[in-house]
Amino acid sequence: MGALTAFEVAARHQSFSRAAEELHMTHGAISRAVAQIEERIGVNLFIRRNRRVYLNAAGQRLLKTTTETLDALSNTVEEIHRHDKTSPFLTVSCEPSLAMRWLMPRLGDFREQYPELNIDLKMAGGAINLLSESCDIAIRRTDFGIPDDYRVTQFCSELAGPVCTQEYWHKHSQQDLNKAHWLHSRTRPEAWEEWKNTANFENVKPKNEQYFDHFFYALQAAQDNLGIAIGSTPLVSDDLEKQRLITPFGMQPTGYDYVILSLNDSNQDPRIQTFCDWLIQQKSEMQVIK
Predict the structure, then answer these.
(1) Residues facing residue 210 across a β-bridge
(2) pLDDT in tens, 70-111
(3) Which domains occur in the chain, in start order?
(4) pLDDT tens digit string along 34-69?
(5) Which phi and psi angles does 98 have, rounded to 5°?
(6) How many CB atoms are closer than 10 A to CB 193?
(7) Where are the alpha helices (DSSP H) in the chain?
(8) pTM, to two decimals
(9) For 76, 123, 208, 239, which has the most beta carbons within 10 A of its beta carbon?
(10) Which UniProt keywords apply (predicted)?
């Protein structure tokens, strides 16, 4: 590995002298390291001419693979360090809408309470492989199968119902769902039908409809007076509490939960425990509107 490192730097600079300077080695040590590799594989890697060296085709091939390998090793070592229990970083994967509408507004509080622990937030939804995606924990809606080797911590149950601004409800829809502009999300296309069936509103139909690529956009459109969307807690909990949105028909259980996923390790990482405890505390302070 030492010889390959010396080769990579020499090949990158196409100079043994500059490689020696970067690695704090002698010119002779770099030359011997390269010669060791060339002897091992039986092929010259440099064209040596007038006290200069130039990579040949074999050297270019080896440089590409060596660079990729050394980069991969560096990244792996960095990931191991970041996910060690003593690391000052905790990598959290969270559903995008939940992250933007509930978690991110609260992370300032976490930083004040635990300034020594930095949250590296990744936004993603659905199934996750914590190891391959280099995440310590994930916050997910339970609409997919969870592997048996994951530790599952209950976060909160989901409630859902139509949400809009008070102005829109009274002025534009005239308090009638049949006269309203319904807002849909392509990531949850059945949200309206599921709510209608649960709340016994099977016969209501929209005046017109509009579709958005993501749940977050539909909720933002409702907040901007564009119509009525199906909102869910905890995503709209802050909006309902601060009366940015209202829920004219209340909220109904969807049958899904939000959970915190971590690896099922008997020696639980104290960083994970700290963050989970903080999440549960924040959830307990959240106003539930049904």
Answers:
(1) 183
(2) 888 776 665 655 555 667 889 999 999 999 999 999 999 999
(3) 2-83 (1.10.10.10), 87-290 (3.40.190.290)
(4) 999 999 999 999 999 888 899 999 999 999 999 888
(5) -65, -40
(6) 11
(7) 2-13, 16-23, 27-41, 57-83, 96-98, 104-113, 166-167, 191-199, 215-223, 237-241, 270-284
(8) 0.69
(9) 239
(10) DNA-binding, Transcription, Transcription regulation
